[in-house]
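dude i think i finally got it to work??
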Amino acid sequence: MRKRLATYLAMTADLLPYYEKAGLLTRVNGVGEVSEVTERCLAALKGASHG
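look at this
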């Protein structure tokens, strides 16, 4: 798990602000029941396809 987190921090975390500023990143709250999170993800994808 430590290696995975280190890899994320080294290779991915710095990209988030870039894509967010470009309007290409939507953050989705992953806390809750699977059905709730799924609904949020689908709503984010639907919104992205119209943007």
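The chain has a mean pLDDT of 90.
im so relieved honestly
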